[in-house]
Amino acid sequence: MQQVPALHIDGVTLNQSLAIIEYLEETRPEPPLLPSDPKKRAQVRMICDNIVSGIQPLQNLHVLQKVGEKKLEWAQHFITRGFQALEKILENTAGRFCVGDQVTIADLCLVPQVTNAERFNLDIAPYPTISRINKSLLQLPAFQVSHPSCQPDTPEDLRA
């Protein structure tokens, strides 16, 4: 599909974020990114699906190119719609992070989506839980060094 990410590891090439993350979780389980409790694991997967299936694909470059001049309005609409639903979910699942106080795969999905919201000039103030969790995550060194604005191939105008 000519999309990123892709990871070549252990003799296999994987694409799509969740497939990569789940493979890493299964083959390198420390620290765990899924809770041991089945209900909490389901909540993590539900949050991930809301983000990676319901919000993020609508902001992919090839989609925005098809939308044309209204790409900002388009992106803001679908992020807003997704964040309204996500905020309600997180009000019931969050502790310090998306599901309780353990960093999970849901948190790995949330931070890049908040970055997208900021990229499209969306005010995230109406989403206090999303905002609080994102701020907590950005305090962690792993999230700081992996932030999109810190990557070597990030365009100059988007760098930290």
From TrEMBL:
<dbReference type="Pfam" id="PF13417">
    <property type="entry name" value="GST_N_3"/>
</dbReference>
<dbReference type="InterPro" id="IPR034330">
    <property type="entry name" value="GST_Zeta_C"/>
</dbReference>
<dbReference type="GO" id="GO:0005739">
    <property type="term" value="C:mitochondrion"/>
</dbReference>
<dbReference type="InterPro" id="IPR036249">
    <property type="entry name" value="Thioredoxin-like_sf"/>
</dbReference>
<dbReference type="GO" id="GO:0006572">
    <property type="term" value="P:L-tyrosine catabolic process"/>
</dbReference>
<keyword id="KW-0585">Phenylalanine catabolism</keyword>
<protein>
    <recommendedName>
        <fullName>maleylacetoacetate isomerase</fullName>
        <ecNumber>5.2.1.2</ecNumber>
    </recommendedName>
</protein>
<dbReference type="InterPro" id="IPR040079">
    <property type="entry name" value="Glutathione_S-Trfase"/>
</dbReference>
<dbReference type="GO" id="GO:0006559">
    <property type="term" value="P:L-phenylalanine catabolic process"/>
</dbReference>
<feature type="domain" description="GST C-terminal">
    <location>
        <begin position="37"/>
        <end position="156"/>
    </location>
</feature>
<dbReference type="Pfam" id="PF14497">
    <property type="entry name" value="GST_C_3"/>
</dbReference>
<dbReference type="GO" id="GO:0006749">
    <property type="term" value="P:glutathione metabolic process"/>
</dbReference>
<dbReference type="InterPro" id="IPR010987">
    <property type="entry name" value="Glutathione-S-Trfase_C-like"/>
</dbReference>
<dbReference type="InterPro" id="IPR005955">
    <property type="entry name" value="GST_Zeta"/>
</dbReference>
<dbReference type="InterPro" id="IPR004045">
    <property type="entry name" value="Glutathione_S-Trfase_N"/>
</dbReference>
<comment type="pathway">
    <text>Amino-acid degradation; L-phenylalanine degradation; acetoacetate and fumarate from L-phenylalanine: step 5/6.</text>
</comment>
<dbReference type="GO" id="GO:0004364">
    <property type="term" value="F:glutathione transferase activity"/>
</dbReference>
<keyword id="KW-0828">Tyrosine catabolism</keyword>
<dbReference type="InterPro" id="IPR004046">
    <property type="entry name" value="GST_C"/>
</dbReference>
<comment type="similarity">
    <text>Belongs to the GST superfamily. Zeta family.</text>
</comment>
<feature type="domain" description="GST N-terminal">
    <location>
        <begin position="1"/>
        <end position="32"/>
    </location>
</feature>
<dbReference type="InterPro" id="IPR036282">
    <property type="entry name" value="Glutathione-S-Trfase_C_sf"/>
</dbReference>
<dbReference type="GO" id="GO:0016034">
    <property type="term" value="F:maleylacetoacetate isomerase activity"/>
</dbReference>
